[in-house]
Amino acid sequence: MNIISSPKDMQSFADQARAGGRVIAFIPTMGYLHDGHLSLIREGCRHGDEVVVSIFVNPTQFAPGEDLASYPRAFERDCLLAEGAGATTIFSPAERDLYGDGYQTFVALEKLPFHLCGLSRPTFFRGVATVVSKLFNIVKPHVAVFGEKDYQQLLVIRRMVSDLNFDIRIIGGPIIREADGLAMSSRNSYLTPGERQRALCLSKALKQAEAMVRDGVSGAADLIDAARKIITAHPDAVIDYIEIFDPETIEAVQTVDGPARMALAVKIGTTRLIDNTLLLP
User: Fold this and answer.
1) First-to-last C-alpha distance (Å) of the chain
2) Domains along the chain?
3) Which of 135, 185, 214, 275 would suit a FRET pair with 208, their CA atoms being 20 to 30 Å apart?
4) At how many degrees (to 10) do helices 124-139 and 151-163 cross?
5) 126: three-class secondary structure by DSSP
6) pLDDT band at 266 (very low <50, low <70, confident <90, very high)
């Protein structure tokens, strides 16, 4: 497996692959890989001859006081896992190579970020859109794969690709869960054993909403209230948001009379977790 750190070297590698008629599939990550990431890599293998995984903890998507310094890192382990899942290349640039002295160019969307996570993390999606744009220009993929657990991020990337005419197909990969239902996340490593057990309230709240919709409940307020009761039964669970919305626009809906998404963000102790599900009446 190739390990490339220089953006120029990555661009040269991509140019050679494209000139040789090879399709590049790209999976951007911040590392500390888990089975959710590996499922995205395996999906990339279905679409590309060269499967490039980036490992870069992007500073511009962290606000002051967030966990940039403590974000888990395990580069050698990540390389082994990525290679085992089918990755052919790791791109792991240094921060100075992406954000050098005097850096001042950012990509910002006008509507999609101002819902859900964007309300409590106002600089997050600007950082995401900026770094993904840069990575696209460096890796030059034909296809890129993003996980549906970060559903708002997936929509932001799709809109950015459409608006800025990137010639890249964006594929969404399904949420991968632990056996007990907890959505896989690198930040799960922050949880104590007790917090890990209490974190199951997120997936339980979503499953309750799915069951209620199947039983004919359509009022968004009723579904949100039921989810809130499950989560607030745990004293150290602090809700950031629980929302039900149109899957394309993220605009809130009052009635689930067609496909809708329910998403939530909850702090368990000091760890902020997100999860979502599709509601089908």
Assistant:
1) 46
2) 2-173 (3.40.50.620), 192-279 (3.30.1300.10)
3) 185
4) 60
5) helix
6) very high
pTM of the predicted structure, to 2 decimals? 0.97
Q: What is the pairing mode between strands 50-55 and 2-4?
A: unpaired
Q: Which residue has the tokens 């896992």?
A: 81
> Own/partner pairs for 162-170, CB < 8 Å, 24+ apart?
163/109, 164/107, 164/133, 166/136, 167/142, 168/136, 168/141, 168/142, 168/143, 168/144, 169/47, 169/142, 169/143, 169/144, 170/143, 170/144, 170/145, 170/146
Helical H segments across the chain, by residue range:
7-19, 35-45, 75-85, 95-98, 117-120, 124-139, 151-163, 193-198, 200-214, 220-232
Predicted pLDDT of residue 3: 98
What is the spatial distance between Cα 55 and Cα 90, in angstroms, rounded to a whole number?
A: 7
- Are 72 and 188 contacting, i.e. CB atoms less than 8 angstroms apart? no
How much of the chain, in percent, has pLDDT values that exceed 90? 100
What gap in Å lies between CA 39 and CA 43, rounded to an integer?
A: 6
The answer to whether 109 and 129 have CB atoms below 8 angstroms apart is yes
pLDDT value at position 114?
Answer: 95
Task: Give SS3 for 244.
Answer: strand
- Residue 266 tokens read as 């909850």
CA neighbor of 119 nearest in space, from 255, 261, 242, 280: 242
Residue range 118-127, pLDDT digits in tens: 999 999 999 9
Per-residue confidence band for 278, with pLDDT thresholds at 50, 70 and 90: very high
Catalytic residues: 37
Cβ-contact 174, 85 below 8 angstroms: no
* Residues 186, 32 contacting (CB under 8 angstroms): yes
Taking the CA atoms of 181, 188, 46 and 278 in sequence, report the sign of the dihedral they define.
Answer: positive
Tokens of 208: 């309750």
CA dist 1 and 151 (Å) reads 30
